[in-house]
Design a protein that fits this description.
The protein is of the alpha+beta class. It has three helices and three strands, in the order βααβαβ.
């Protein structure tokens, strides 16, 4: 004979959200400085952001001419990882390249 009482009725309450919000997206930018080489910026854009040589060059020229260049738009965690990766590579190569993210 089973020790489990099958006469007990369990009540399970579940609540469903009516509106599920999409996660916020973040723009990732590179900032111009007087020391980081254009070649290094292009390499970073290709390695970290997966840009083609042509797209990386266009973004690098924006950074150089306008002081800032948009690298991409990502979820928070991905954007944060890309910013950290850029800073790591820049330090590793002795450049002060700055990368930032802002909510879209």
């Amino acid at each position: 004979m089973s020790a489990i009482n099958t006469d007990i009725e369990e009540k399970v309450e579940s609540k469903t959200r009516e509106k599920v919000e999409r996660p916020h997206l973040y723009k990732v930018y590179l900032h111009n400085d007087d020391y980081t080489t254009m070649e290094f910026v292009v390499e970073v854009l290709m390695a970290v952001f997966g840009k083609s040589a042509g797209d990386a060059t266009k973004i690098m020229l924006n950074v150089h001419r306008k002081g800032i260049g948009l690298c991409g738009v990502y979820s928070y965690e991905i954007a944060e990882t890309k910013v950290d990766r850029v800073h790591f590579l820049a330090r590793e190569h002795g450049f002060p390249l700055r990368c930032s993210m802002e909510k879209e």
